[in-house]
Design goal:
Low-confidence stretches: 11-26
Number of helices: 2
Distance between the termini: 71 Å
Shape: globular
Helix content: 10-25%
Largest sheet: 5 strands, mixed, barrel
Strand content: 35-45%
Radius of gyration: 21 Å
Strand order of the largest sheet: 1-2-3-5-4
Length: 156
């Protein structure tokens, strides 16, 4: 004779275990410390996001959204971009396949918002925390936590 109480309990335990194992099981790159960000960055700027442009492309079961933020630089902490308008590149990656996303990166975080003030850690013609292929003179935001939101002293 089947003991339904015991079978139901086992099923519940197994189901709970499986759900716990798959919830947010994708592996993200650990955030870099402030010292690691400073060491990796070729430029560090503080500025306001003026616009964001994006282009999405599907590769297999993933959607890669390449973004460019237009930044009005208030001051620099590394480099000489103060007073300039620069464009910085970053990305987001979304799983579009069936089931749970397998281990892997999901892009930059936090993602900037228009009008907000950030300290931005950048790599130009150097390793950007994700790839060594950044050799075209553009600014790549250090992967994955190269945007640091700042309190806005002007109240904007």
């Amino acid at each position: 004779m089947i003991n339904y109480r015991k079978t139901t309990r086992r099923f519940a335990v197994c189901l709970t275990f499986l759900l716990a194992c798959q919830s947010n099981a994708h592996a993200e790159k650990a955030p870099l410390s402030k010292q690691e960000l400073e060491k990796t960055a070729t430029h560090i700027v503080v500025g306001r996001i003026r616009a964001i442009y994006s282009r999405a492309e599907r590769r297999g079961n993933y959607e890669y959204t390449h973004r460019i933020a237009e930044v009005s630089v208030d001051r620099t902490e590394k480099g000489d971009e103060a007073g300039k308008l620069i464009h910085v590149r970053y990305l987001s990656i979304q799983w579009k396949g069936l089931g749970v996303m397998p281990p892997g990166p999901s892009g930059h975080y936090p993602r900037p918002e228009i009008g907000e003030l950030y300290r931005i850690y950048l790599a130009r013609d150097a390793y950007d925390g994700f790839s060594k292929d950044n050799l075209d003179g553009g600014f790549n935001v250090i992967y994955g936590n190269g945007f640091e939101p700042l309190d806005d002293p002007s109240g904007n």
